[in-house]
Amino acid sequence: MEDWRVAQEAEGRLKGPDRLAAELGLAPDEYVPMGRHVAKLEAGAILERRPAAPAARYVVVTAVTPTPLGEGKSTATLGLVQGMGALGLRAMGAIRQPSGGPTFNIKGSAAGGGRAQCAPRDLLSLGLTGDMDAVTNANNLAMTALTARMRHEARRDDARLARSGLRRLSVDPARIELRWAIDFCAQALRRVTLEPEEGSGVPPLPSGFQMTSASEVMAILSLSRDLADLRARLGRMAVARGADGRPITARDLEVDGAMAALLVRAFQPNLLQTLEGQPVLVHAGPFANIAVGQNSVVADRVGSALADYLVTESGFAAEIGFEKFWNIKCRATGLAPHAAVVVATLRALKRQGGAPRAVAGRPLPPEYAHERPDWVEKGCANLAHHLGIVRQAGVTPVVCLNRHASDHASETAAARRAAEAEGAVFVVSDHWARGGEGARGLAEAVAHACRTSRAGRDGGGLRYLYSLDDPVADRVDAIARHMYGADGVDFAPAAGAALREIEADPEARRFPVCMAKTQYSLSHDPALAGAPRGWRLPVREVAVYRGAGLIVPVAGDIQLLPGTGSDPAFRRVDVDVATGRVTGLV
Question: What SS3 state is found at 515?
Fold first, then answer.
């Protein structure tokens, strides 16, 4: 049965927000119902009243290198929460909000699948409580403020500026650092030229769009600890450079307060649930290949105060999502994971072991259905690499093989041998077909790993990959060598110049590194499978997100605004006009 049909059949069993809040012990002023099944949580009130609350055991879900079809990491996250519920454990999930880009494109929604989903599925996937729109609007308000200021300054009327209480910023038209935002994979908007009205005095401006999920505003929403932190970070955002080369910020444009006003409600985490009624926090939605790839700091802090087990998810595979969780998010939360789940599928391991490359939007090549334990065995070099990444952080990994009906026993046995040879617990989980009951074994293994872990609150046992005092180039090199398996990094001239500028800035040089890289290979090249060796990472540019507090090197040909495929998911999404129900949402 299609995922959306499973979700609709479960709607009658979903809990209302008042019941969910009561089960979490929330006071009436700690949540705001947003319809029949969703609530906004008042994070400030919750954290103020529970400052000394014992932290939940903290679990992060990551994965091996995926195929374009995805390997069910969100499904495993939700299945694990349901499995813990089946064991009688007080567990909560924390996931990102789906973007309209993938939802209407090839991959579909990130709501989970089968009987392990976040509900209500259609509301989650189609805008939820408006957070994505708020981020888009805040970003575009900054761009509106910038272009309006440029127009007014082009008039050369300093007296008029003075009457408005403004000072001349002298924006360099060639150095506009911010882009417009859109929540669709609209590749036609990657590069645009703004044509000011005739006589304005403003030259044509090269510009472009990025995904809302890849924007700095989204990164700020994800990483801010409270509203004061959010407001301060927005003010530090650099939108352009002046003629003297200095950053021009949202504060300089006096737009940061209005941006914060747009984000006040979006800053509060959304409370949803699994199909089996366990609470799930849904908040922020940054991509992992071109952004920070984590749900919000505030959601994890709230979940840590309300549950005994908090299961969070990092985008894509361990060399991308887990690395950013470890070296960026954990620094911001002060939390350290007790265990990590590394999700794998036999099809992903086959791809890494020599199966034909899968293409987004097309069925898997027929070779994937063949019994090929040799492909799986060879592909487990990729699994071993990701287990090694988790262990570098000092975290205990548990391997979760997402079971598919077409799996062959010989292939599963090959994956088990490889995982156990690496010293990892290996569990075949059937949550997609059986929900929480199918994830009992996974939940038991993860709970045991948490109980025996040395890691925990305040970073105990967590070893960061690099120090923020290290030169930026050395940090990028450490990620390339130890996370990706590269022999080193080659910086393009533009990237080298940016690094020199960053090193001269005492504040920016201490920002953590947030790499932008393909998710389909450990390397920068999607065609390189397994755990490739003998290659170097090309970095073409390096950006600085002063508000989010991130240094963003861009490797290979990765795009900040993906394109829509030839057979996108929106072709199958519709509405039953008799009932108003959404259909076909994958």
Answer: coil
Q: What is the DSSP letter of 543?
A: E
Three-state SS at 25: coil
Dist CA 196 CA 253 (whole Å) = 19
What's the CA angle centered on 517, arms 125 and 424, to 5 degrees? 80
Burial of residue 455, with CB atoms counted within 10 A of its CB: 0-12 exposed, 13-18 middle, 19 or more buried? buried
Each residue's pLDDT expressed in tens, for the chain with a length of 586 residues:
788 888 888 888 999 999 999 999 999 999 999 999 999 999 999 999 987 667 899 999 999 999 988 899 999 999 999 999 999 999 999 999 999 888 888 777 888 999 999 999 999 999 999 999 999 999 999 999 999 899 888 876 677 777 777 888 999 999 999 999 999 989 999 999 988 777 777 788 889 999 999 999 999 999 999 999 999 999 999 999 999 999 999 999 999 999 999 999 999 999 999 999 999 999 999 988 889 999 999 999 999 999 999 999 999 999 999 999 999 999 999 899 999 999 999 999 999 999 998 887 778 899 999 999 999 999 999 999 999 999 999 999 999 999 999 999 999 999 999 999 999 999 999 999 999 999 999 999 999 999 988 765 444 568 999 999 999 999 999 999 999 999 999 999 999 999 999 999 999 999 999 999 999 999 999 999 999 999 999 999 999 999 999 999 999 998 878 888 878 888 888 998 888 888 888 8
Q: Is the pTM of this model over 0.90?
A: yes
Long-range Cβ contacts of 470-479 (<8 Å, 24+ apart) = 471/503, 472/499, 472/502, 472/503, 472/509, 472/513, 472/542, 472/551, 473/499, 475/512, 475/513, 476/513, 476/515, 476/539, 476/553, 479/323, 479/513, 479/515
What is the greatest pairwise CA distance in the chain?
A: 80
CB atoms within 10 A of CB 505: 13
Domains of the chain by residue range? 54-123+266-459, 131-262, 478-555
Task: Answer left, alpha or beta for residue 580, where phi above 0 means left and psi between -120 and 50 means alpha.
Answer: left
Looking at domain 478-555, its CATH superfamily turns out to be: Formyltetrahydrofolate synthetase, domain 3 (3.10.410.10)
Pick the CATH number of 131-262 from 2.40.50.730, 3.30.565.10, 3.30.1510.10, 3.30.1490.480: 3.30.1510.10
Residues contacting 240, CB < 8 A, separation 6+: 146, 171, 172, 175, 176, 177, 178, 247, 248
Q: What are phi and psi of 339, to 5 degrees?
A: -155, 160
Q: Which residue has the tokens 């600890």?
A: 225
| Domain 54-123+266-459, second-level architecture | 3-Layer(aba) Sandwich (3.40)
